[in-house]
Every structure is written in C-alpha cells, then in structure tokens.
Design goal:
45% of the residues lie in helices and 17% in strands. It is an alpha/beta fold. Bound molecules: D-ribose.
C-alpha cells in the first residue's frame, strides 16, 4: 500500500511520528511536507496529496493541520476526493465503509499520537462496503 501525507507547520512533529508508524507497518509513504515548523499555508499540502490520490499515484492520503478542517475543505475541492476529518476511530472506519473516503484528515491540536495511530489503523484496515452506499457516492459525484 502507498500513502501520500502532508501537513502544515502545526503538525510537522505528529506527521513525522505517523510516517514512522506507517513505515513500521510496511506502508510506502510519499512525504509532501511541510518539513519544518516555519509558518506555511495548509492548502499547499492539501493540493499535493489530493493530486497524488486523484491520479492514483498512491492508494490513500493523510493530511494533518491544527484541526484537520482546513485540509479537508481544501482536499474536497478536487474531483474524486472524499476527505474526512476524524478525531476518533469509529468515524474513520465508517467513513471508509460507507463513504469510500480516500483522504483522512485530523488535527495535531486535537488528537495526540496514540489516538492518531488508532484512527489511522481503523481507517487503513476498513473496507468500502459498496452496494447501497455506491448510489449515494455517485449522487455526490454528480453534483
Ligand atoms: C493554522 O493556524 C491553522 O489554521 C491550521 O493548521 C488549520 O487548523 C486550519 O484548518
């Protein structure tokens, strides 16, 4: 599995910890930055990760900012991107099962490392259920 990841300055430390965690699970990671704590703008990284997911260069994307909210708003501007903000594992799992989410966002000011790992685990391991959910995803795609 390949995952593209990006963050802004609020989340560089957490992003690096999540990258380490993913690599320990033999997941290939493309790190789009940011790489320091210097102030920057989250849409830059939301775009890079969204384009990778959109073009199927990677299977999934992860975006981290202060809250995850700005990242998700930006990522959802890209056709075919279904980005979700999750602060707990149940919604992360359900967002895959029901909504076929392909980018997971969370906030470094909201969740700690251990909770972030649980959210990531549930999300990566959950499967899309398709069926009745597909017609709803199609309805959104046709907006
Ligand atoms: C940066 O201060 C903050 O606005 C950003 O990380 C994010 O939370 C936006 O949604």
């Amino acid at each position: 599995m390949k995952i593209a990841i990006g963050c802004d300055h609020t989340a560089t430390v957490l992003k690096n910890q999540i990258i380490k965690y993913l690599k320990e699970s033999n997941i290939e990671v493309t790190d789009h930055g940011t790489y320091s704590n210097d102030r920057t703008d989250y849409p830059i990284y939301a775009k890079k990760v969204s384009l990778d997911v959109q073009s199927k260069l990677v299977d999934l994307g992860i975006l981290i900012c202060g809250t995850g909210v700005g990242m998700s708003i930006a990522a959802n501007k890209f056709n075919g991107i279904r980005a979700v903000v999750c602060s707990e594992p149940y919604s992360a799992m359900a967002s895959k099962n029901h909504n076929d989410s392909n980018i997971l966002c969370f906030g470094a000011r909201v969740v700690g490392l251990d909770l972030a790992k649980m959210i990531v685990d549930e999300w990566i391991n959950a499967e899309y259920h398709g069926g009745r959910h597909q017609q709803r995803v199609d309805m959104i795609d046709n907006f």
